[in-house]
Structure formats: C-alpha cells, structure tokens
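Long-time lurker. I teach an intro course on protein structure, and each term I like to show students one example going from raw sequence to a predicted 3D structure in token notation. This year I'd like something fresh instead of my usual example. Would anyone be willing to generate the tokens for the chain below so I can use it in lecture? Attribution to the forum is fine with me.
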Amino acid sequence: MQNVSSISTQGGTDSRSGAARRGLRLSLSQKLGLLIAVILCIGIGTMLLVQLKLRREAALEEFRSSNIQVISLVAQQISGALRWNKPETITPTLESVAAFDGSALANAVVFNAERKPVVSFGSKRFAHHEELPQALTAEREQALKAGEVQDFSDGEDHYIILAPVLAGKDKEYVGTLAVALSLEVLNATVAESMRHGLLLSGGLLAALLIALVAGTQILVSRPLRRLTAAISDLMAGRLDIAVPSLARRDEVGDIARSLDVFKGQIAQNQDLQRERGEAQAQQQAERERAEAERQRQEQELDRSVAKILEAAIGGDLGNRIDTAQLEGAAQRIGGGINRLLDITDRSLQQISRMLAAMADGDLSQRIKGDFAGIFAQIQANANGTAEKLTSIAGRLIQASRTVRDASAEISTGSQDLASRTESQAASIEETAASMHEITATVKQNADNAQAA
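-- Reply from a regular --
Happy to contribute to a lecture. Here you go:
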C-alpha cells in the first residue's frame, strides 16, 4: 500500500507538472473554432485586400479618365495663348482649374513646341511635384506630337498627365501641358473605404466567430461532452445509461452509434462473465462434492477393510465389503477384495473338509473347482497328497492280509510239528507266540491303515 501511495503521489506530481507544461487546455470546439477563425481571418483579410486593391484601381482609373478629360479641355483652352505666346492668359486658366471644387491639381508646367517651360503653376492646397519639368522626355514628346495623352503614376503621392496642346483647324502641335495631380484626396477616400471595409469585415468576422463558437458548442462540444460522460459511466460499469446523439447523421452520430455497440458488447461480456462465473462456481461445487464423496468412500473402504482384516485374523472369512455404497476406484477395490475373500474362503473350506474326512479315514475327498496361482498349487498339492495316502493305505492293507495268511500257515505247521516232536515243543511254542504277536501287530496296523 505504501508503494502504491508513493506511486500515486509521484503520478499526481507528474500530472500536475505535465499540466503546467502544457499550459492552457483547449477543448475540441475551441480548437476547431480557433482553426476556423484563423482560416476566416486569412480568407477575409485576403479578400479585403484584393477588394481594396480593386477599389483603388477602379478609383484611380476613374480619377485618371476624368482628369484626362479636364486636362485635355484645359490644353484646348490655352492653345491659342500658347500659340501666340501669351503666357499671362494661361495662369488664370490654371488657377480656375485649381480652385474648382474637387480638383486635385498640385502643380502644372506649360511647355512650348521647343520643349521649354513658359508657365509654371503651383497650387496652395497640395504638395508640389518637384520633378514635373523632367517628365517631358523626347520619347513622350513624340507620342504627344501624334496627339496621344501620356499619363503615369509617380509614386503614391502624385499622378502625372501630359496633354498635347494643339491649335488651329489642322491641330498643329504648339506645346505640352504637364500636370501633377495630388493623390491625397484619392488616398484618403480609399483609406476611408478601407476603414469602413475593415469595420464591416471585423463585424462580420466577429459575428461569424460568435456563430461558429455557438455552433461548435451546440453541434460539437456539447454532444462530445455528453458522449464523454456516457463513456465515463460505461467505464464505471453503469450500463443503464442512454447513449446520446444516436439519431445524428454525422461523425458525432457515428461515434454515438459505435459507443452504443460498445455498450452492448460490454453488457454481453458481463453476461458471459457472469455465466462463466456461475459455471465455474457450479463446477467448483461439483468438484467439492465429488471430493467429499471420494473421501467418504475412502473412509468407508478403510473401515470395511479394517473390519474384514480383523475378522480374517480371527479366522472369519465370511465378512464382505458393501460395494453398493461405493463408486469408481473404491468400488473396484472393494469388489476385488471381495473376490479374493471368496476364492480364499472357498479354497480353505474345501481344504478343511478334505482334512476332516482324512482324519476320519476317508481318503476319497478332493478339492474341486477352478483356481489360479497359489490356490491352484494348493489344490494340486492337496489332491496329490490324498491320492498318495490312498495308494499307501491300499498297499498296507494288502501287506497285512499277506502277513495274516502267512501267520495262519505257520500256526498250522507249528501244530503239526508239536504233534510230531515233543523235543521241539518249547521252541515251537515260543515261535508260535512270537508269530502270534507279529500277527496281532500286523493286523492292528492293517486295521489302522484301513481306518486311515
């Protein structure tokens, strides 16, 4: 427990330090909103820049075309004065143009046909273009003599227009009107338009971000939090919960349906585990019952064997093991002991009966039946012994009869000799007495052999 606590404490410290290193934790909806916000900012910024550039180009084109028309008209108005070399009449015309509301005239230079400046004019409203006299080059002069207006932008502050001054019906080239137009008003207008566009885009972007955050919260973050809570409940073993967002037809719905399938699999696994546990418990109970029954049968067999052995030691072979109460190996062992007792008892009973008969002089008894092993040897030896004893008894009876007949003959001869000779009477009487004793002994033996 102490090791687990130390590991848990160390794990908690590592987790806190890891969380500190990770910094701010962002949810999936916040990350998605941030990503889309960056994409929207880039897209809207790019679109705004392109739009502002197009607006500026359109405004510059409008500015150019309108001022070309005005400068061309001014060049026609001053053509006579320039042709007749009356520069004093040119300046008022330029002043009236500069004073016109909306005019962007900064400064102007009028060149004669020899490309010499005859009039220089500067407006008080805008900064002058100091390099305007150098704008009339030989190349541009050739185009002007052909009646073409030359215009170009010189940086971000001024726009240059060179208009040919043509006089008379034959449109004789008499000089050039070079005008520097200030882009200050145009730039201010474009900047104001840019500010309005930025404000509008910023408001639109803010509205989109708010809608995006709300949408991701409603459509993504909230359903995912519910699914996370459902997963936590399932991991805690609560299977009675309802998986949310099953009817959705998007990725969240796919996750929810997969989670519902996972929930069913968990329930199925729990059912299988419960059934497996019940089966294991039942098997364990069966094993315990079988073990208890085996021990009971072993004890019963031990008691029966001890009882039979005790009786057998006392000469009683009539007891048997009750195999009806036994099963399996115990039943087989009990049955084998019973068969051994049957064979031993039957063999000894027959041996005892045969010996009792022999003791009474009856040598006709034999051990009958089929025996094996040592019991077959005992049967053969006992029956062989009875056969030999019967043969010996027969021979003894025959010998006793022979002795009896010889004794009778000797007695008869002795009586004959007694009558013939008295001298041998004493000897014959002694011999007869001896023979009589022998005859009595043989007869007694014959009777005993016959009786055996």
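Some talking points for your students: The first strand starts at residue 105 and ends at 112. The mean pLDDT is 79.
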